[in-house]
Design a protein that fits this description.
The complex is a heterodimer of chains A (about 180) and B (about 375). With about 180 residues, chain A is mainly α. In chain A, about 80% of the residues lie in helices and about 0% in strands. Chain A has helices spanning about 5-25, 25-55, 65-80, 90-115, 120-140, 145-165. Chain B is about 45% helix and about 10% strand. Chain B has 15 helices and six strands. Chain B has helices at about 5-15, 20-35, 40-45, 55-60, 65-80, 95-100, 110-120, 125-140, 150, 235-255, 275-285, 290-300, 315-320, 325, 330-350; strands at about 155-165, 165-170, 175, 190, 220-225, 235. The longest helix of chain B is centred in the last third of the chain and has 22 residues, at about 330-350. Chain B starts with a helix and ends in a 16-residue tail after the last helix. The chains are: A mainly alpha (about 180), B alpha+beta (about 375). The interface between A and B is large, with 26 and 49 residues.
Chain lengths: ~180, ~375
């Protein structure tokens, strides 16, 4: 992990903690705003990946994979940009879905890391499981929106803390020559 | 390539080319020093920092991925370890892609000739450095000295070619990321850099995604590079290392004045003939480090003991020399040669319309 990666993780972790507190304290205002920010993030990442494909990755082995991922993220971003106008319950459902998706993706990454003999995967697995459990609990408590919001806040808070811990962990050196 | 070939192998080549023990040792030291002359070491020695010929892992970890940092990385790795084969090769694609593809390393390119010519008459330090660059063009063929997922990534289509019952067969190579486990030659398990989806990540610099395989002389393998249009590349290291060795002898004879000009595609296979079998045996032996075998051959060739590589062997003199005398020391000559080589390659990349290595300024009559 480079120094920049560590700084990014710390900032990401702090942002998640701030967001989680704002969800718990001001759910009606913060959740639609955060879901809108997430939508913009998805849109930006999708566009960036498609641009990467068009300029470089189309010449690369496995480049189509990058195009499909970019299109999927762009589509999700376009779909979700309208969500803040819907009732809070739908926003919560959307956020829980994003969390579950992120958690499943992380667990799949951990599976690959274990297969490749990577020594550091436990904290990442915890991160993934936490995301999935948070998403499931949110969906379970969807009838009581305030309980779902609180569960989601706790989940995001924990994820933020794990991200910060990850940033300070000793990792294996990168390897070039 | 590793210390075995760069240090002991270069020593053997120099002795075969007709160098004396001391001259061969100085040349070999510089060839290996190219793999250790980092910014951190230069700071410790009080040497000019732009003479860095490599980057330590700890230095790379601290590198940012902005354009200036990537240009710094590219200047070092393209000039000394992944010399571009052809900066003007016809490549399909946009300029962004073409610029990266033009930095793919390969042997017998125009820049190898310029590298060898640049070193002539500049002392054994410059010669050793040039031989390092030359040798690496064979080992690192197909990879670029710039961070790029699009060029340097590899996939699971990676097979070792080994002989079974006298026939070549494919065995799948399993890559892992566990540094502690290292390379397991018997079970074809090799360490490689972690996959990083970012185009600009230092994880995607050079041959990290193919592990140490390009640096093992015994390795024969086929793989599918990211850039090859889904075509497999066959890498026959014993043969390519032998070419590197014979081309080094040819270059050394040019340095010595036995030959008037250095041309690419020419290898001195005559002088090496009496030792061909022994060298082939060393190159094909499956081992992580062939230093002992090369050392044994070198000592037999010269009749002298070859000391182990000592990174400080020449820099102690540099550290205590007066400011005026520093340039005349062996280490001082190496640093000058490094700066000239780096600026020459940067100049050539820049004048080809490629800004990946940044701008260049003229040093010692070169770019």
């Amino acid at each position: 992990m480079t120094v920049i990666d560590r700084i990014k993780r710390v900032i990401g972790g702090l942002v998640m903690i701030v967001f989680s507190l704002s969800y718990a304290l001001y759910p009606k205002e913060s959740l639609p705003a955060v879901s809108f920010l997430l939508s913009l993030g998805l849109l930006f990442t999708g566009i960036r990946m498609i641009f990467f494909y068009l300029t470089l990755a189309r010449h690369m082995t496995g480049g189509l994979n990058i195009l499909f991922r970019g299109m999927l993220l762009l589509d999700l971003g376009l779909f979700s940009v309208k969500l803040p106008e819907l009732p809070l319950m739908y926003v919560m459902f959307y956020l829980a879905g994003i969390n579950a998706f992120s958690g499943i993706a992380t667990v799949l990454q951990v599976r690959d890391a274990v297969r490749l003999g990577s020594p550091s995967w436990r904290l990442k697995l915890l991160f993934g499981i936490l995301n999935i459990v948070t998403a499931l609990l949110c969906i379970l408590f969807l009838n009581s929106v305030s309980l779902a919001v609180l569960t989601y806040s706790i989940g995001v808070f924990n994820s933020g803390v794990i991200l910060i811990i990850q940033a300070f962990r000793k990792t294996a050196s990168i390897y070039i020559q | 390539m590793n210390k075995d070939f760069h240090y002991y192998g270069t020593y053997c080549a120099a002795i075969i080319a007709g160098y004396g023990h001391d001259a061969a040792l100085e040349t070999a030291y510089s060839a290996q020093f190219t793999d250790t002359c980092s910014l951190t070491y230069l700071k410790k020695t009080g040497a000019p920092l732009n003479a860095a010929t490599t980057q330590l892992q700890s230095e790379l970890i601290n590198e940012r991925t902005d354009i200036v940092s990537r240009q710094r990385i590219t200047r070092i790795w393209s000039a000394f370890h992944f010399l571009p084969a052809d900066l003007y090769s016809p490549v399909k694609g946009g300029k962004l892609y073409r610029n990266k593809a033009h930095l793919i390393c390969g042997s017998d390119g125009a820049l190898v000739k310029e590298t060898v010519e640049l070193a002539k008459g500049c002392g054994h330090q410059a010669e050793g450095l040039a031989l390092h660059v030359l040798a690496d063009t064979w080992a690192h063929r197909g990879f670029a000295g710039t961070p790029s997922l699009v060029i340097n990534n590899t996939n699971d289509n990676f097979f070792a070619i080994i002989e079974e019952d006298g026939r070549p067969v494919r065995k799948r190579i399993v890559f892992h990321e566990n540094i502690r486990a290292g390379d397991d030659l018997d079970n074809m398990k090799y360490i490689r850099s972690v996959y990083h989806a970012s185009e600009k990540s230092v994880m995607n610099l050079g041959h990290g995604r193919a592990g140490h395989l390009p640096d093992y002389s015994f390795a024969r393998y086929v793989y599918m590079p990211a850039w090859g249009g889904y075509k497999e590349i066959f890498k026959d290291n014993p043969n390519e290392y032998y070419n590197a060795f014979t081309q080094m002898i040819y270059a050394l004879r040019y340095f010595k004045g036995d030959i008037n000009s250095f041309e690419t595609g020419v290898y001195d296979t005559e002088l090496v003939k009496p030792y061909e079998n022994e060298i082939t045996d060393i190159l094909t032996k499956r081992q992580l480090d062939a230093s002992e075998d090369w050392k044994r051959l070198g000592e037999r060739l010269s009749g002298e003991a070859i000391p182990s590589f000592d990174i400080d062997a020449y820099t102690r003199e540099y550290a205590i020399a007066s400011e005026n005398a520093k340039a005349k020391t062996a280490a001082g000559k190496f640093f000058q040669a490094a700066i000239k080589q780096k600026s020459m390659v940067t100049e050539r990349i820049f004048t080809s319309g490629n800004l990946l290595a940044g701008f260049s300024k003229r040093v010692g009559g070169e770019g």
